Automatic annotation (TrEMBL):
It is a multi-pass membrane protein. It holds the Pfam family Multi_Drug_Res. The chain crosses the membrane at residues 33-50, 57-78, 84-103. This is Guanidinium exporter.
Length: 105
């Protein structure tokens, strides 16, 4: 169950990052509310996952899911620049997430 909490927390991190971008510096009400609600939910689920997962593993995977997810949303939804270097960097993050998962009992 902690791994499920962790993955959902990471996905919620993507949602709050995107909605924060849409909030235009917290000047738009609904994106701002979505940001705050999903932040709270993401942190809450992360804290539940950390009850039984090591701190370094949980935090690294949570931030990795959020970083790569936000990167992909930026490209696919916001039309942000894609380059081989940026894709390689995201690939290294994914590789780190996989290795951390494999290294955790």
């Amino acid at each position: 169950m902690p791994w499920i909490y962790l993955v959902i927390a990471g996905l919620l991190e993507v949602v709050w990052a995107f909605s924060m971008k849409q909030s235009d510096g917290f000047t738009r009400l609904y994106p701002s509310l979505i940001t705050l609600v999903t932040m709270i939910a993401s942190f809450g689920l992360l804290s539940f996952a950390m009850r039984s997962l090591p701190l370094g593993t949980a935090y690294m995977i949570w931030t990795g899911i959020g970083a790569v997810g936000a990167f992909l949303v930026g490209i696919m939804v916001l039309g942000e620049h894609v380059s081989a270097t940026r894709l390689a960097a995201a690939g290294l993050i994914v590789a780190g997430i996989v290795l951390m998962k494999l290294a955790t009992p």
